[in-house]
Amino acid sequence: MSWLYLILAGIFEMTGVTMINSWHQNRNWRSLLLLICGFGASFLFLSLAMKELPMGTAYAVWTGIGAAGGAILGMILYGEPKDAKRIFFIAMVLSVAIGLKIVS
């Protein structure tokens, strides 16, 4: 169950990061509310995951999901560059997260 919590924490981290960009563009209450809720849920699920998972593993996977997911959402939603080098390094971040899951 702790890995499910960690994945949910990463997804909510992606939501929070995406809403930061939305907040900067729109300055509306919906973006601000989703930003606060996204990060709040992310920290809640991260803390639940860390009851069973080592801190280093949990934090590394959480930040990996958030960073890679944020970059992917930036490419999809905000037209950020989609060059091969960028996609390669995003794949490397995800491989590290998967590798930590395998060895944990």
Please tell me about this protein's structure:
The chain is flat, with a radius of gyration of 14 Å. The protein has one domain. The longest helix has 25 residues, at 2-26. The chain is mainly alpha-helical. The protein has helices at residues 2-26, 29-49, 55-78, 84-103. Helix 1 (2-26) packs parallel to helix 3 and helix 3 (55-78) runs antiparallel to helix 4 (84-103).
Question: Would you kindly provide a brief summary of this structure?
Answer:
The chain is mainly α and 104 residues long. It has helices spanning 2-26, 29-49, 55-78, 84-103. Helix 1 (2-26) runs parallel beside helix 3.
Oligomer: single chain
- Strand segment count: 0
Biggest sheet features: none
Average of the residue pLDDT scores: 94
Helix-strand category: mainly alpha
Helix content: over 70%
Write the layout of secondary structure elements.
Blueprint: H1 2-26, H2 29-49, H3 55-78, H4 84-103
Helix pairs in contact: 1-2, 1-3, 3-4
Give the tags.
104 residues; 4 helices; mainly alpha
